[in-house]
Amino acid sequence: MSAPRSADLLRTVTERLAQAGVPSAYADGLALVAHVWGRSPSEARRDLLLGRQPDQQQLAALDELVGERSRRVPLQHLTGRAPFRHLELSVGPGVFIPRPETEMLVDLVIESAGQNAAVVDLCTGSGAIALAIKGSDPTCRCRPSKWTSWRSPGRPAMRKPSASR
User: Fold this and answer.
1) What is the torsional sign of CA 90, 32, 42, 76?
2) Which domains does the chain have, with CATH numbers?
3) What sequence ranges are listed for the domain Release factor glutamine methyltransferase N-terminal (predicted)?
């Protein structure tokens, strides 16, 4: 990717993703620019409006990430983050990305479990369900099972909830 003007950077990234058939090309492009800059998407949007330019290393990283996303590598695996309710989870290959249906499951458990309930999250993966339930009801004894990816060597770890995102 050649060095586009700041105003054209997001447009160029969005066009590449759209040409590859990525349905959320603008949002994904903004997320990738933000990731490369180490910023939130709203901060990256502001920086673009103010004329921030990526350096050559950032431009090369962005080019690689856009190529990967164009080949349908999940955005969350590229950024290493996945939002889930009030949490931000670390994800990557080998850890499923939490789906909206999983948030509905958590809502149902919270509604039906009642106070001081005991909940076991079997085959928890990222730990999203256990963390979300426990975060919503501190009286709940919610335990992930011992067969979890977040306890397995070489797997990404969960992130703590982040109020700044």
Assistant:
1) negative
2) 6-79 (1.10.8), 82-151 (no CATH)
3) 8-80
Per-residue pLDDT averaged across 47-60, rounded? 94
pLDDT score recorded for residue 28: 97
How far apart, in Å, are the Cα atoms of 84 and each of 34, 40, 97?
A: 19, 16, 9
Tracing tokens 């969005």 back to the chain, one arrives at 14
- Name the 3-class secondary structure at 43: helix
The residue with tokens 């050649």 is 2
Angle, CA 128 vertex, CA 125 and CA 133 arms, to 5°? 130
Q: Which residue has the tokens 């995102």?
A: 165
Q: How far is CA 89 from CA 60, 78, 128, in A?
A: 26, 13, 7
Given a cut of 90, whether residue 40 has pLDDT beyond it is yes
